[in-house]
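User: I'm writing a tutorial on reading structure tokens. Could you give me a worked example: one chain, its sequence, then its tokens, then a sentence or two explaining what the tokens reveal?
Assistant: Sure. Here is the example chain.
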Amino acid sequence: MKKIFIILTISVLAIACGGQKTETTTTANTNDTAAGTLTIDFQAIVGDTNNAVISSNSYLKITGSYGDIDGKIDAATGASMPTRTPDLLNKYRSTDNNVFNNKMEVGLGQFLLFATANSSRYIDDGMSGSGIAQRTVEGTTGPKVTGTGITKGDDGVITIRFVHAGGKTVEPYIFEMKTDANGILQVGAGTENFKRSEAVVTNDFDFNTDGSALIVDKAKEGVPYWKGDLQTTYENNIIKITGTLTETK
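And here are its predicted structure tokens:
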């Protein structure tokens, strides 16, 4: 009888513990599926290659579910502050820190980093005001991309065109972003307001004649993505982007 009683007691405890564990797991899953938020306050000066001017006019402030960022560049060294700001932003740009699992348009994620970039990137990526992007690394020069920069049409549409080649590569990806007539960037809409090259560009490229080769730039299919409207203004060579995005799963 004692043995039977002990067995029954252990069984009851096991069932009770199992029930408690299931309840905890359910709660964790509920928290995991809660929609994240991302609030962006971005400003950058275009057409100036003086690091002191860039530092005093450019910043990236991020608040949201995956950590806050308060970034700019150091005027003396040209380094981003805090260091490795791209790594901090990657928590919002992609899942599992994998750039191929992008949660937002690749061009938007890259463009936000101009707020914490120095003059070298402005020149290489087409934001120096020359309208041309071309990078040289260790004696190797990449293709020339013509038509970069920011324009605001009479209809109110703001067009942003730039390139980026990471590391020591000289062959860039090409990006284009367009607002609507009210200066709104529609993030996560999957429309042609965000476009990019499908692969790195190996030949000279002109936005005016080769733009049709660009594809729609959007989050990777099947991953949570950011959705919402960002207000964009462009006056006196200052580009501002502000607003809050919601994570859609």
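What the tokens reveal: Residues 2-32 form the longest helix (31 residues). Residues 1-31 have pLDDT under 50 and may be disordered.
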